[in-house]
Predict the structure.
Amino acid sequence: MSAPASAAVLQFYESHPINEDQIVAALEARGLDLAAVTEEHLKEHDQDHYGGTDAVDRLMAAAGIRAGQRVLDVCSGMGGPARYIAWRSDAKVTGLDFTLSRHEGAQRLTRLARLEHLVDCRHGNALEMPFDDASFDVVIGQEAWAHVPDKPRLVGEVVRVARPGGTIAFTDILQRKPLPAGVLARLREGMTFNEIITADEYCRLLVERGCAIVEVRDLADEWTAVLQQRHAMYRSLQDSTVARFGEAHYRKYDEAYGFFVSLYAQGLLGGSLIVARRGN
């Protein structure tokens, strides 16, 4: 990832409305004793992706995640899905994220839920993963890979760290129709989406690297509704966002996110669940 692209993504997530402080404040607002917080409590507040734990359940089922497996969540953010998967399945889950503050926040939240024995949070670049070949039974991702440029390199790394016969299952923001250059530039500026491709392009990259496509499930209609709700949720956090990052930042983010959501309503953007199996 180029230095400007890296800096933009880091800044985007350093000032994201969903963050460690906001999650802890939500727990405290429920009157919970932080010393007694469990994943049962935490899972309601730390799922920074589309669809909450229902979406994680769907991804787990599609990937066939089970106890004892080694699972890697690429671009794992605050670690919400990693903790939930480990808690539900007894799999050993590693979360890899590029933003140091979110990585550190994920570590603290994992300790809060007392899941360190199953969840390992790592700081690193998805384009240069700090793992040996064939390290994981399952590799997953949720709506984060649009931030990562150089999809051939990203997919190459994902396949490299999956074991032969292992599963790759992810959801991502995708093009449904070709995006005008001005739209791409605005998404890159406002949302730090460095490269948005199609489901067909992802499948081609996976097949070229020896994978078989198991499933491609279109999520565009579902996400159109989810994103409208998500935008409203972000607006409900206006006071805490302004208090932490300032009014100008809130307004800029609100405008950028509103534009992003509008592209789903126009049928320009969509999303899919893609499941593949690495060849032996």
